[in-house]
Amino acid sequence: LFDALDDQPLDAMLTLLHLLRNDPRSDKIDLGIGVYGDDNGCTPVMQAAKMAERNLIETQTSKAYLAAEGDAHFINLLAQRVLGGAEVNRYCGVQTPGGTGALRLAAELIHKANPEARVWLGTPTWINHHALIRSAGLHILEHPFFDQATQSVLFDEMMTALESARTGDVVLLHACCHNPTGADFTPAQWRTIGELVNRKGLIPLIDIAYQGLGHGMEADAAAMRTLLDSVPEAIIAASCSKNFGLYRERIGALWVKADSATAALRARGNLILIARAMWSMPPDHGAAVVRTILDSTDLTQIWLTELEQMRTRLNSMRAELAKAVPQLASVAQQSGMFALLPLNREAVADLRVKHGIYMVENGRMNIAGLQAGNLPRFAAALKPYLQG
Ligand code: PMP
């Protein structure tokens, strides 16, 4: 059986991690994998999560299955943070294994509802979007999104490309803190997208994986919520990996906004059916931690304060980098964990080999890998590779 399989190239991120771990240089700089690091390069468990875990150990009496849709209380509490005061009866939500699980579930639902639907992805986007959408059997079309050399959003080009979208096509949008570019739409651009979506009958699939790490929990969701209010149907895939620091617990949620309460209920039944055939029940621990935090005013306050510290640190590293490297002034205007530097593959490889600086081969850097102690060395190493 297995002889029929093709060899697969090693995952680029794992290869990078392997090289990093085996690099003996003590001043190596890790700007690769997309995990938040503090000023000491650590990814600690958030205090609020630790407190919630202690509470769970004391109070949890059973680990029996919950339900295919997960923990309804978790979903409702998270919905208040993600969707705000949306018209809840037109929404249905389920708990998923991470944002990845939410996106895969979304792709399966889209395919079940309309196998002819095509999904529009910006170039570039999070690399896994392609695999997740394709795995469900959906056809992908790409539209321009970002010019790496000029560090600008190609909004007109995107709108022109989307003019050829068909009714029922899906357009994937990053709610905030775009991965890998850090470049988000302006409120005016979101409005223009909303007009196009309505005029052409498209379905927005919104990926919100970094809420709270750009401009704050409410601000990062604001444009998405305005869009959601203006469209009849939409899908929202959320991740708690970054903003709760619960990466390995695999916790996220998927909401569908339907054009009636009946249609929302029908979508819910289908989501549960699909989830049953993929993971049957989502993992609970991370959701229980998030639920415990959001259910307590005190823990919520502690969590929001910690999240705010992470966000402030990211933005101060952005400002410092822009100050140290004037060619990267745009990095200070961007948000979230990533920037896609105007570097080619050779430059990225050179920085790794000569300077022990690790970033993804397309030039994506994790801003959270910068620290007061390594930023000057990074800036100095970078300058010869930048134009202007
Ligand atoms: N969407 C985007 C844009 C991401 O960057 C990520 C994580 N890298 C995810 C979704 C999924 O995150 P997770 O499955 O770890 O919750």
Chain-wise SSE layout:
Layout: H1 12-21, E1 29-30, H2 47-59, H3 72-82, E2 91-96, H4 98-113, E3 118-123, H5 127-135, E4 139-144, E5 146-147, E6 152-153, H6 155-162, E7 170-174, H7 187-200, E8 203-208, H8 217-230, E9 234-239, E10 252-257, H9 261-278, H10 285-294, H11 297-324, E11 338-340, H12 345-355, E12 357-358, E13 364-366, H13 375-382
Parallel strand pairs: 1-12, 3-4, 3-7, 7-8, 8-9
Antiparallel strand pairs: 2-10, 5-6, 9-10, 11-13
The structure holds 4'-deoxy-4'-aminopyridoxal-5'-phosphate.
The site of 4'-deoxy-4'-aminopyridoxal-5'-phosphate has 13 residues, from helix 4.
Name of the CATH first level of the largest domain: Alpha Beta
Radius of gyration: 21 Å
Bound molecules: 4'-deoxy-4'-aminopyridoxal-5'-phosphate
Into which percent range does the helicity of residues fall?
40-55%
End-to-end distance:
55 Å
Largest beta sheet: strand ordering: 2-10-9-8-7-3-4
What is the CATH architecture annotation of the largest domain? 3-Layer(aba) Sandwich
- Give the total of domains: 2
Largest sheet: 7 strands, mixed
Secondary-structure class: alpha/beta
Classify the beta-strand content into a percent band: 5-15%
- The chain-level mean pLDDT equals 97
User: Strand-and-helix sequence, N→C?
Assistant: HEHHEHEHEEEHEHEHEEHHHEHEEH
Give unreliable regions as ranges. Answer: none
Number of helices: 13
CATH topology of the largest domain: Aspartate Aminotransferase, domain 2
